[in-house]
Amino acid sequence: MKTNQSKIKKAKEYLDKNYCIGVPTETVYGLAANAYINSAVKKIFRLKKRPKNNPLIVHYADLDSLKNDCLINSNFIKLYKKFSPGPITYILRLKKNSKISKIVTNKKNNLAIRFPKHKIFKKLLKQLDYPLAAPSANIATKISAVQASDVKEEFGNKIKYILDGGKSNIGIESTIINLTNKPTILRLGGLDISKIQKTLGLKIRINTNPKNKIAPGQSLLHYSPGIPLKMNVIKPKKNQAFILIKKRKKKLDNCYYLSTKSNLNEAAKNLYSCLRKIKNKGYKSIAVEKIPNTGLGKTINDRLNRASKF
Ligand code: TXA
Ligand code: MG
After folding, report:
1. Among 185, 171, 148, which Cα is nearest to 24's?
2. pLDDT at 220
3. Residues with Cβ within 8 Å of residue 243, at least 6 apart in sequence
4. N or C: which end of the chain has fewer CB within 10 A?
5. Ligand 1 pocket check: which of 21, 49, 59, 89 to mutate, most ligand atoms within 8 Å of Cβ?
């Protein structure tokens, strides 16, 4: 058994040589590289088959390491104190003399930043003298990865190393908030937006529209298992995989449960592995029962809705 420190050391060696590696976070796994080096960042885009105009999130160990790159404001400090490290990404203005590669932001002057909570990933970030650009570790438009074996399934031997940190605890991407202007939610995610609202003490705009120019990654087709998916189904068709929010007394065929008793946090955590399992079993289509649209249920419905645009 390799110790965490020896795994982190190996990860650092690859990153220092400007390779791209898989990293664990509490939301989903990331495909990470040095955010200051053009050639390293380019590799991320190539591997993910990601359009150049879709910017990346940069991950920092702490506030000190961020201060050279971004301008911070009072809304950011309020949210940072309450929710970071954790599943929230902030859009801030880049400083003129920031060292962030222009390729990360597609030459724009706003940067998405996040402070991850995952213990091993945090330890790794602390040992680096640069932040890590890392999108979710999946091929563009496909299902995100929540464990090391999912990352391997996506990229095979094309990446040199995956830092294995077990299964992601939250299992769904971070909530993104734009703080360069009036606070606006750009992506629903692992942090319930009502908590953000409460902390800022104001009604926050939500703009997760796929036509939204500022977050081009919010395209309607996303998180796709590659087979048709239908939401709000009461009775599935024969041979269809059926995803349910809670266990039923009567065992139905082809059933996959996101949680035992309609727990939406548990359901979010299981969503991507459930979709991946169904795809790998060779089903031709998926039906999903109605998921309550509250708390993380909103994020689950957002992902299912995009996955259904196949
Ligand atoms: O939980 C997460 O956020 C994961 C883990 C690995 O940290 N990362 C993640 O990255 O989900 P990605 O690249 O799959 O999704 C990032 C989203 C994209 O929709 C992108 O368009 C948007 O963030 N984004 C990135 N930089 C932005 C910016 N400067 N302004 C607006 N949107 C931005
Ligand atoms: Mg993604």
Report:
1. 148
2. 75
3. 256, 257, 258, 274, 278, 286, 287, 288, 289
4. N
5. 89
